[in-house]
Write a structure and sequence with these properties.
It catalyses: tRNA(His) + L-histidine + ATP = L-histidyl-tRNA(His) + AMP + diphosphate + H(+). Belongs to the class-II aminoacyl-tRNA synthetase family. One of its GO terms (molecular function) is histidine-tRNA ligase activity. Its EC number is 6.1.1.21. Residues 1-400 form the Aminoacyl-transfer RNA synthetases class-II family profile domain. By secondary structure, the protein is an alpha+beta fold. The chain has 2 domains: 16-355, BirA Bifunctional Protein, domain 2, CATH 3.30.930; 366-457, 3-Layer(aba) Sandwich (Rossmann fold). It is built from 18 helices and 16 strands. The protein has helices at 16-35, 49-52, 57-63, 79-84, 87-94, 104-113, 158-173, 186-195, 202-209, 212-226, 231-237, 247-258, 262-281, 346-355, 376-391, 405-414, 425-430, 452-455; strands spanning 39-40, 46-48, 66-67, 97-99, 122-131, 143-152, 180-185, 287-290, 304-309, 318-325, 339-345, 369-371, 396-398, 419-422, 432-437, 442-447. The strands form 3 sheets. It has an 8-stranded mixed beta sheet. A 5-stranded mixed beta sheet has the order 13-12-14-15-16. β12 (369-371), α15 and β13 (396-398) form a beta-alpha-beta unit. The chain is globular. The chain binds one RNA strand through α3, β6, β10, β11 and α14.
Length: 458
RNA sequence: GUGGUUGUAGCUCAGCUGGUUAGAGCGCUGGAUUGUGGUUCCAGAGGUCGCCGGUUCGAACCCGGUCUUCCACCCCA
C-alpha cells in the first residue's frame, strides 16, 4: 500500500525559485563576511551530546534533538535507570550524539580543539543549518540556517563597532531598509541588578525586563514580584521603564542610576564607546538603538548584546542576534579567550524580504536564453549557437522537443527567460537567428557567424 | 512542554440548522492561431473534503483521536 509522503513538522522542501532566493541572501552575506576578513569553517551536523548539553540552559537542553545510539543500546542500560522511567536519567545513556543547536558552541569547541593551528585573533564565518525541537510557528522552524561571524582572541571594542557596520552593510545590500540594531550590555544589566539588590536574581530580573515592550510596565513588575524580587528593588529599577531619548541621553540616565556599581559603569562606558564610534562612522540604512531591556542569550554573553529587528511594518521576531562572550571556550578548557559575534537568521530574512517584495526578478531567472526547437536540423544549429554562448558563461538551452511554438514560448515566459532565440528553416537558410526580447516583445535578427553581436549585450 | 487554531481542485478560498451528481476565481490542457509568450474568446480535465474511528437512514458539516498549519505562553534566528 502506497503511503502518503510527508516531511517532519517544522521542516520544508525548497523549490528551484526558493533555493535561488535563499542563495541570493547567502551569497550577499558571504560576500560581506569575506570583505570584512572572515574565513569560512564548517562543523559536523551532530556533536557529542556533552558538547551541547548544559550550554543553553534547561530550556535549551529540552530543545536539543538527541540522536538515538546505534545497536542494541537498550540492553546496555542498567536496570535501575531502565525501570526508573525517568527521561532525564535515561536519555544520556541512550543518546551519545545530538544535532547542532546553534553555531556558536560548536565554534567554541572548534577553537579549543584547533587552538594550535589557529592564528589569533581568529575571524571565522559559518553558514549551516541548525536544529531545534521547538514547536513551529511563523518564522520558527525545527531546521533552519544561521549565518554566523565571530572573532575570538581580541578584546577590543572595535569588533563590536565593525559588527554593527557589517549588519548595516548586509541589510543595505539586500535592500532591507529600516532595520533596527538593538544594543545592550550584560554588564549594565548586572550593574542594575546589583544596585537594586537583586544580584542573585539577575536572570529572572532581565528575562522579565526583556518583556517590557510586550507586556508593559505593570506586567513586568508583576513578573518580577512573582520571581521573588522585592518591591523596593523594583522601585529602584523603575527609571528603566521610562528610559527615553537618544542613546546618548539614555546613557546619561544610566550613569546616574549606576554610579554605585563598578561593573554597571564599565558596561555604560563600553556602550558609550561603541555608540560614539558607530555614530562617527555612520550607517547606511540601519539604525543603532540602545535598548536596556534587551536581554537575550544571557547564558553566555558577558558584554555587548545585539539583536536585529525587521522593519517596523513587518511582523517578525528578530532576524539576527549576537554579542560578546568573554569565556565561552573556558567550558572546554581554554581560558581567557574573548569572543564576539553576530548571527543572521536566513529563513526569517527570507520571509521578510518576500513580504516586502525585495527579491530582484533576476534572482529567479533560470536561464538567459532559450532556443526554440524547430526540428532536427534547426535544433543542431541552435545547439551550436548555445555552445558558443555557454563558452562565454551565458546560461543557454535548447527546448528539447519539437513541439508547437506556442508551447515553447509559454514555457520561456513562465520560466522568466529574458531572451528567446528562433532558428527555423528560413533563418537556417540565410544563416541567421532571430532574438526575441521577452520583456519588450521586440525582435532582432543577427548573423549566425557573428553571434557576439548579440551576446556582448548580455 | 502548556493552551488554542487551521486543513475542501495545483493555488486562494466559498459550501445554509447534517440531505442526492461538492462550487468559484486563478492556474493547467486543448482549440480559435500549422513561426510567436505575457492580453482576449471557446471547450475540457482535475477533489479518498488531512488521516483514522464513532454518532446517524444519511457526515465536508456533529463527536473522539491523530497529523499538519498558524497563534499565545515558554524560548528564540
Amino acid at each position: 500500500m502506497a503511503q502518503k509522503p510527508s516531511i517532519p513538522k517544522g521542516t520544508r522542501d525548497f523549490s528551484p525559485t526558493e533555493v535561488a532566493k535563499r542563495n541570493y541572501i547567502i551569497q550577499t552575506i558571504k560576500k560581506h563576511f569575506e570583505v570584512y576578513g572572515f574565513q569560512p569553517i564548517e562543523t559536523p551536523s551532530f556533536e557529542n551530546s556533552e558538547t551541547l548539553m548544559g550550554k543553553y540552559g534547561d530550556e535549551g537542553d529540552r530543545l536539543i534533538f538527541k540522536i538515538l545510539n546505534s545497536g542494541d543500546f537498550i540492553s546496555k542500560v542498567d536496570d535501575v535507570t531502565y525501570s526508573s522511567k525517568n527521561s532525564a536519567s535515561l536519555t544520556p545513556k541512550i543518546t551519545e550524539k545530538a544535532l547542532r543547536y546553534d553555531l556558536t558552541v560548536p565554534f567554541a569547541r572548534y577553537v579549543v580543539m584547533h587552538q594550535n593551528e589557529i592564528d589569533f585573533p581568529f575571524k571565522r564565518y559559518q553558514i549551516q543549518p541548525v536544529w531545534r525541537a521547538d514547536r513551529p510557528q511563523k518564522g520558527r522552524f525545527r531546521e533552519f540556517y544561521q549565518c554566523d561571524a565571530d572573532v575570538v582572541g581580541a578584546k577590543s571594542l572595535l569588533q563590536e563597532v565593525e559588527f554593527v557596520q557589517l549588519y548595516d552593510a548586509v541589510f543595505t545590500a539586500l535592500g532591507l531598509k529600516g532595520t533596527t540594531i538593538k544594543i545592550n550590555n550584560r554588564k549594565v544589566l548586572s550593574g542594575i541588578a546589583e544596585v537594586i539588590g537583586a544580584k542573585h536574581l539577575l536572570i529572572d530580573f532581565t528575562v522579565a525586563l526583556d518583556k517590557l515592550d510586550k507586556i508593559g510596565e505593570e506586567g513586568v513588575k508583576k513578573e518580577m514580584l512573582a520571581k521573588g524580587i522585592s518591591e523596593s528593588a523594583i522601585d529602584k529599577a523603575s527609571p528603566l521603564f521610562a528610559m527615553s531619548g537618544s542613546s546618548m541621553e539614555q546613557l546619561e540616565q544610566l550613569k546616574s542610576l549606576l554610579v554605585e556599581s563598578e561593573i554597571g559603569m564599565a558596561g555604560v562606558a563600553e556602550l558609550d564607546e561603541i555608540t560614539r564610534n558607530v555614530e562617527a562612522l555612520g550607517l547606511q540604512s540601519a539604525q543603532l538603538q540602545l535598548d536596556v531591556t534587551l536581554a537575550r542569550g544571557l547564558n553566555y554573553y558577558t558584554g555587548a548584546i545585539f539583536e536585529v529587528s525587521a522593519p517596523e511594518d513587518v511582523k517578525m521576531g528578530s532576524i539576527g542576534g549576537g554579542g560578546r562572550y568573554d569565556d565561552l571556550t573556558g567550558i572546554f578548557g581554554l581560558k581567557d579567550i574573548s569572543g564576539v559575534g553576530i548571527s543572521f537568521g536566513l529563513d526569517r530574512i527570507y520571509l521578510v524580504m518576500e513580504e516586502l517584495n525585495l527579491f530582484p526578478s533576476s534572482v529567479s531567472k533560470s536561464v538567459d536564453v532559450l532556443c526554440v526547437n524547430f526540428g532536427n536540423q534547426e535544433s543542431m544549429a541552435a545547439l551550436k549557437l548555445v555552445n558558443q554562448m555557454r563558452a562565454k558563461g551565458i546560461k543557454a538551452e535548447v527546448y528539447p522537443t519539437n513541439t508547437k511554438m506556442q508551447k515553447q514560448m509559454k514555457y520561456a515566459n513562465s520560466r522568466n527567460i529574458p531572451y528567446v532565440v528562433l532558428i527555423g528553416a528560413q533563418e537556417l537558410e540565410q544563416e541567421q537567428f532571430v532574438v526575441k526580447d521577452m520583456a519588450q516583445g521586440t525582435q532582432q535578427t543577427y548573423s549566425l557567424g557573428n553571434s557576439e553581436e548579440f551576446t556582448e549585450h548580455l
